[in-house]
Amino acid sequence: MAYRILVVDDEPGMRKSLAIMLRREDYQVMEASSVSEAVGLLAADPCSLVISDLMMEPLNGLDLLVLARRRHVSCPIIIMTAFGTPLARTEALQLGAADFLEKPLHGPNLLLRIRELLRAEA
Amino acid sequence: MARHVLTALRDRYRRLSLRTKFALHITLSTVLLFAALIPGVLYLESRAILDDAKQRGLQLTKIFAHASVQAVVADDFIVMRHLVNSIGSEPDVLYAMILDASGRALVHSDITQTGLRHRDALSLQAASTDRPLRQDIWSHGVPAYDFAIPIYVLTDQRAVARIGLSLERELGQIRRTRNLILGLGVVALLSGLGVAAWQARSVTRPIGELVQGAHAIAAGDLTHRIPAVAMDEVGQLGETFNRMATALAARIEELKAAQIEIVRQTRLAAIGEIAAVVAHEVRNPLGALANCVQLLRTGAQLSGDNAELLDIVRTESERLNRIVSDFLAFGRPRPPSFQPVDLRELIEETWAQLRRDERCPTSIVFAPRFGSDPLKVQADPDQLRQVFWNLFLNAAQAMAAGGTLSVESRRRADAIDIEIRDTGAGISEAALPRVFEPFYTGRAGGTGLGLAIVRRIVQDHGGDVTVESWPQVGTCFAMSLPVELSSPWRTGSSSSTTSQA
């Protein structure tokens, strides 16, 4: 069965290109342009993994971590950002992020990390 | 030598406190006044007293002489004796006698002297006088007057009536007068000194406060104030001093603010310059990228996601290009090139262009209200287009769910006011004062330069732009542009175009 991955980013270019890359790896991909949209999708369909941007308005990636845990979403959530600070990284990991990645993302590395996380889940 | 002493004295005088100088001046002038007055007063007073004595002595002697004439003619010793006794018992009379021409005392108040011939120079002088004579003598250590008046029988001088009048009482009176005047002088001097000291204190104390205040202000305490005491010149000086301190504090605050502003401007200029250098370098690879995308799009038949991917590359490189352009516009502003511009046309053109942009929601109503006045200004059309583009785009992005963008113009004597109003989300009260600051952005993905560029261009045109906003109601940018040029660029390279105005 194909893993289902949710990509959350308010930047359409980033979101769409990530989605295309993941689809080519035969993952089933869902896209959300905001945290509230992502929470709605997560409530409707369970996912195997979430990749979310950190800096979004009005709710950000950290809010997504909190909301997801509150709704008992147990899948790994990867947080990515173009402007990472050590503090944001610590905060994200404390809130339960599976990983904290800085943009620009290196495609092969990201895919490797996703595979590792999905295998650990299984 | 005397000169050295003078210099030393002057030097010491200069170092005296104001209070001491004041007291010194008053004391000196009082002493001088008394020194000048007292001897004169004393002289006049003693002369009056002595004149009285002279008058009295002479009168007494005259009476004595007149009374004696009969007795001298008759050689009546009993009467003469009687007369001498009665004159001699008058107060202050030391002696009374009648001398004959040879200087022998016919009678004398001192009975032992009667009949004796007086041969001393004074007596001889008295005995031989043919008119009233007064001589100064000393009797037992006390000054006295000796009066002599000749006694005539017809024209024949028979004898001389002579009395001695002691001045002891007069001298006592003169001494008492002198003591009284000197005592009064001392009392006046002392009370003058007291008044001088009190006056000096009342004058110098506020001055001392002024000195303290000046010290405090010099030491940096600008909140120091002189307490208001009197309304006289010293009080006015204190008030002026306080006003000076207030003005000084205000001026220092202004200077501080100006310094902070200069530091801020310098920092921004440096950041802008770095941004411009980086942006300039980024432009070349970006140009190549855009070119390649263009070639791929037209050359190859791409399918499905590949076309989508290429489209993402195109959009993102366009976005990069816009960011780079903003940085360049802010960091390396181009001097405006002025020419007549019709604001109405420019605004409508800019809106038409923005409406085709994918970032502009389609559900926005554009509502211009220009009135009938011509809206021609001297301006750089490219730069003004950028101003309206940035303001319209901001408004459009604040109205993602649709709304009304209204533009209203008002023509004044020498300027045109333009209000750009949206019905968007509004700007928070905290962010409002900072929206024109470069690199300040309230929106994810913005460079924070759009409104900084707007303000710079409007100010370069000699105008100004302000903002008002009400959260959930909308935002209004009010701009005024002068019809004629009054900007610093006027004397620059674009003067040939401005001369047409």
Tell me what you see in this structure.
The complex is a heterodimer of chains A (122) and B (501). By secondary structure, chain A is of the alpha/beta class. Chain A has five helices and five strands. Chain A has helices spanning 12-24, 35-44, 61-70, 86-94, 107-121; strands spanning 4-8, 28-32, 49-53, 77-81, 99-102. Chain A has a five-stranded parallel sheet, sandwiched between helices. In chain A, strand 3, helix 3 (61-70) and strand 4 (77-81) form a beta-alpha-beta unit. The mean pLDDT of chain A is 90. Chain B is built from eleven helices and twelve strands. Chain B has a five-stranded antiparallel sheet, sandwiched between helices. Chain B has a five-stranded mixed sheet with strand order 7-9-10-12-11, with helices on one face. A two-stranded antiparallel ribbon of chain B has the order 6-8. In chain B, a hairpin with a 2-residue loop joins strand 4 and strand 5 (156-166). Chain B is rod-shaped, with a radius of gyration of 59 Å. Chain A binds chain B through residues 10-13, 16-17, 20, 23-24, 55-57, and chain B through 305, 308-309, 312, 315-316, 319, 443-445.
